[in-house]
Amino acid sequence: MHVVPADVWIDPGRAVDKALVTHGHADHARGGHRQTIATPETLAIMELRYNTREGANPVQYSETIRLSGGVDATYIPAGHVLGSAQILLEHAGERVVITGDYKRRSDPTCAPFEVTPCDIFITEATFGLPVFTHPPIEDEMAKLLSALAEHPDQCVLVGAYALGKAQRVIAELRRAGHTQPIYLHGAMEKMCRLYEEHGVPLGELRLVADYTKEDMRGHIVVAPPSALNDRWSRRLPDPITAMASGWMRVRQRARQRGVELPLVISDHADWNELTQTIEDVNPQEVWVTHGREEALLRWCQLGQRKARALALVGREDEDE
């Protein structure tokens, strides 16, 4: 997305001179920019994932920076993952909010979404169909802990996206009273440590590689989704396979993954959150991107709201 008056790009999929980045997921962030403007947490995530350091310009939440062309940019919490931000652009009396990815649910690992009135609201629609209504995360944690209690000689292997979802699952388990050690796939360790360095407590974490199969009986193991059916999982004690994703609402996806315990946990807004957010923001115009645009466009039209689809290159489903 190119902001013409300021000649800057938002979440560009290629290297540019100046990039405003909403958060650290790979479909929004990448290395190679001459200058990257993002929250300190997002810049730390980008350095860890993409080896970016030079040209990093940190912006705090609620801080406004002046870009060229008389454009002001303010970073506002999006509630998606650690450091995620909406970007408010102000120019010539017009206010435009680009949400990036967001959710409205409580999340102990990141700052909550803040409603920001504007003229044009550019919203994601990953789960932009009425069928997608995410259950309370407390219910999903109860399912997970119940499965663990019922199978003390096994472990529960939870597939979770390495940035954001894994740390949220761990933090929610702690909030639910689970104090036992949680075992990690090696690919999770550095990101979990980064979260802890930014003030997100995750309790005792252990690397699977450092322990025996017997040690892990009766415990929870968190791994990337790609590891669920990988040879790596053979070292675990008869794992019950779980997957934490908003897509687990679709039973066929769970079956395709061989998931025994689908956990409907998403870091994206569901249908009710999307529509409620549009009502809360009350913009003159809505631009919909990154997902299922048609239903949300129709909902806007029925409510006499001006709306259009905005196709962006490189936006696709993730294991979110």
Description:
By secondary structure, the chain is α/β, with parallel strands linked by helices. It folds into 2 domains: 2-131 and 268-309, Metallo-beta-lactamase, Chain A (4-Layer Sandwich), CATH 3.60.15.10; 137-263, Rossmann fold (3-Layer(aba) Sandwich). 23% of the residues lie in helices and 23% in strands. It contains 7 helices and 18 strands. It has helices spanning 40-50, 137-150, 165-175, 189-197, 251-257, 271-281, 293-302; strands spanning 2-3, 8-10, 18-20, 35-38, 56-58, 64-66, 72-77, 85-91, 94-98, 120-125, 156-159, 182-184, 205-207, 220-223, 240-244, 261-263, 285-291, 306-309. The strands form 3 sheets. The chain has a 7-stranded mixed beta sheet with strand order 6-7-8-9-10-17-18, with helices on one face. Strands 13-12-14-11-15-16 form a 6-stranded parallel beta sheet, with helices on one face. A 5-stranded mixed beta sheet has the order 1-2-3-4-5. A hairpin with a 4-residue loop joins strand 1 and strand 2. The radius of gyration is 20 Å and the shape is globular. The chain starts with a strand and ends in an 11-residue tail after the last strand. The mean pLDDT is 95.
